[in-house]
Design a protein that fits this description.
The complex is a heterodimer. Chain A has a domain at about 1-80 and about 175-250: P-loop containing nucleotide triphosphate hydrolases (Rossmann fold, 3-Layer(aba) Sandwich), CATH 3.40.50. Helices cover about 35% and strands about 25% of the residues of chain A. Chain A contains 9 helices and 10 strands. In chain A, the strands form 2 sheets. A 6-stranded mixed sheet of chain A has the order 6-7-8-3-9-10, with helices on both faces. In chain A, strands 2-1-4-5 form a 4-stranded antiparallel sheet. In chain A, a hairpin with a 2-residue loop joins β4 and β5. In chain A, α4 (about 110-125) packs across α5. Chain A is globular and about 50 Å long. The model of chain A has no long low-confidence stretch (mean pLDDT about 95). By secondary structure, chain B is mainly α. Helix content of chain B is about 80%, strand content about 0%. In chain B, α8 (about 165-175) crosses α9 (about 180-215). Residues about 1-10 of chain B have low confidence and may be disordered. Classes of the chains: A alpha/beta, B mainly alpha. Chains A and B meet through β6 and α3 of A and α8 and α9 of B. Bound molecules: adenosine-5'-triphosphate and magnesium ion (MG). Adenosine-5'-triphosphate binds near residues 15 and 47 of chain A. Magnesium ion binds near residues 48 and 49 of chain A. Chain B: InterPro entries: MetI-like (IPR000515), MetI-like_sf (IPR035906). Chain B: One of its GO terms (cellular component) is plasma membrane. Chain B: Keywords: Cell membrane, Membrane, Transmembrane, Transmembrane helix, Transport. Chain B: This is ABC transporter permease.
Chain lengths: ~250, ~270
Amino acid sequence: MKGLTLRNLHKTYFDLNMGSRVTAVQDVSLHIREGEFVAVVGPSGCGKSTILNMVAGFLPATKGEVLVGDRPVKGPGPDRGVVFQNFALFPWKTVIDNVGFGLKMRGIPKPERDRIAREFLALAGLTNAADRYPNELSGGMQQRVGVVRALANEPDVLLMDEPFASVDAQTRMTLQEELTRIWQERRHTVLFITHDVGEAVFLADRVIVLSKGQVLREIDIPISRPRAWDTVSEQDDFKRLSSEVLQMVRSA
Amino acid sequence: MSDHVEPIAFIAGPKRVWLYVRQAAAFIAPLVLLLLAWPAIVTIFDVSPRVFPGVQAVLGAAADGLRDGTLLAHVATSLGRVALGTVLAVAAAVPLGVAMGVNSGVSALLTPLFRFFSVLAGIAWIPIATLWFGYGFGAITFVIFNAVFFIVAYNTLLGVSAIPPRLRHAAASLGAGRVAMLTEVLLPGALPNIVTGVRTGLGFAWRGLIAAEMIATDVGLGYMLFVARDFYRTEVIVLGMIIIGIIWLFIDRLLLAPLERATIERWGLVQRT
Ligand SMILES: Nc1ncnc2c1ncn2[C@@H]1O[C@H](COP(=O)(O)OP(=O)(O)OP(=O)(O)O)[C@@H](O)[C@H]1O
Ligand SMILES: [Mg+2]
């Protein structure tokens, strides 16, 4: 496990419609400690995905740099596991082969990676889905596979871009609880992107509010763990922090 | 060639078998009717064998051809030519299609050309093929190659460029290098399109082959038809036509269509947007 540092990140796009440059991310600096869970919230278009894509190495930064531990990011790599909003499972691979993909890339032989993959599948209650194809699973199950696939590769940092935005509300709450439980066991360094304020406060140790490509505020979330919706949603701390963050997002 | 058979794919169990039987029956029934009408019409209108043969004459021609081995030689030669041309074409087209699909600049440059040549598939190449290669093996292989090559390359390109970028991102962030990206993401992702391309291309190749064999060789089904014409052997011509049709139906229905359906259906690529 390692920490994650964003140092004076800038991103400008060339907007073909307007025929000019638009700044999507402006001088964002952020340090996520080893084993810390940080959520970034902000209104649509404020640059959340752009930041995550630069951290993942999918998108080059216009200026600034990203460090995993003290190593600068040059492109995508297995030190940063990514969970995508639309799951991005390989439709031609079974669930177990999806989960074992990162291990395969490391040259781990099939029996061994199946064993490891099964362990991780069990973690998310997916044991019975191992030999199915992604299109045979519900959205919620697909995203469990997406999370577990990233975890099984044992990344230093976990990057998640609105991973639960495309599942129904009930499933979303279950997935959020499962994520906090798994995170507590393994203590990954997490950068979690969402526009759902409740989700951010429920999951994170620290919430970053983003506005027009810049960090507006950072708020610590000292709610005790383990967290479950039944109890957390009743707590005054949770209510107070949520409304505080919500106000900031709305003013952003 | 693109008869709709998909719906069956989503139904399971005995019902599915029953549907297959019904579909097969619906396909065969008109052919059986034609087979029954044929001797009747020939008798009623007293058609001259020089114009159209009776059923028995055709069966006789089949028996003769089987006995002296010429029929088998024609069929084997034609199939061998198609197989060779197709294998060469696929081997060349898939890597090129992948390269084009990965590089948007190259793809923008070549796509219109490939669409153009896809339309020309097969027969239109025969005259120039015989000019370049003379009459024989080279010209025929060239015609088949072209019928398959452009369509498969174009379909591979489409398949690769339709792979959502996030799948490539996912693979890269799980540690896939260039080779793994090719074998684990690009090729499997494009496979349904490649199969579709091969199916379409083979259809053109088969027709192109028959036409090419009529002018550019001295053995093969097309040649068999063409020579029979010189001797007014309508029973051999019709026999050849029936065999050509049946062989294609077998290849397409029993080999290519199920393969195409299997890749598309199993992976649920319908929902991969
Ligand atoms: N490829 C691109 N070309 C031009 N402009 C872009 C491009 N990608 C993003 N942008 C612009 O950059 C800004 C930030 O986009 P980004 O996708 O990072 O926002 P976001 O916070 O993730 O929004 P959402 O909550 O809707 O996902 C937006 O104004 C967007 O229009
Ligand atoms: Mg986004």
